[in-house]
UniProtKB/TrEMBL annotation:
PROSITE patterns: ZF_RING_2 (PS50089)
Claim: Amino-acid biosynthesis is one of the keywords in the record: no
Gene3D superfamilies: Zinc/RING finger domain, C3HC4 (zinc finger) (3.30.40.10)
Superkingdom assignment: Eukaryota
Source organism of the structure: Eutreptiella gymnastica
Protein name: E3 ubiquitin-protein ligase listerin
Function: E3 ubiquitin-protein ligase. Component of the ribosome quality control complex (RQC), a ribosome-associated complex that mediates ubiquitination and extraction of incompletely synthesized nascent chains for proteasomal degradation.
Subcellular location(s) of the protein: Cytoplasm, Cytosol
Length: 152
């Protein structure tokens, strides 16, 4: 059973979000600066849960926090939408869904979809369709990001 707790610390202008599943608890802090919206909201890992990340790789964790920072800064997104995206990524991570190898997210920040496109040659990880489109445009061809074979 997953449980999400949200605490608002008005004195420090911080929102603490913790996600608890089975025996793992992870948390993050969203600090709203006094000069908001001129300065961005600081998205950071809660120091107490740093060692107990529940098997989430460091690069994947950092990418999730970076995506949330980008969403808050450039996409006119609410704090609540970022919290929901983070919780969705955690829920699917703990249920065994693999992240997209391009963006390292399980839930796409752009359209809240799961990775569903798989290369027919190498049959490796699944990709978000929007991530693949960006990959094809930047690479200049339609090849698999993992095995480089033509995408069918």
């Amino acid at each position: 059973d997953d449980e999400v707790k949200v605490r608002v610390l008005t004195g420090s202008r911080t929102v603490v979000v913790s996600y608890n599943t089975d025996d793992v608890t992870v948390a993050m802090n969203l600090r709203v600066p006094a000069s908001y919206p001129l300065r961005t909201i600081d998205v950071a890992e809660d120091e107490a849960s740093r060692k107990l990340r529940g098997g989430i790789r460091e690069d994947q964790w950092r990418m999730w926090l970076l995506k949330m920072t980008i969403m808050l800064f450039s996409q006119n997104t609410t704090l609540w939408k970022c919290v929901l995206l983070w919780c969705g990524n955690l829920a699917r991570h703990f249920s065994g869904v693999e992240p997209c190898p391009i963006c390292y997210s399980i839930v796409s920040p752009a359209n809240q979809r799961l990775p569903e496109m798989r290369c027919q040659v190498c049959k490796n990880s699944k990709f978000h369709s929007l991530c693949l489109l960006k990959w094809f445009k930047s690479a200049g061809n339609n090849s698999c990001p993992i095995c480089r074979s033509p995408w069918y």
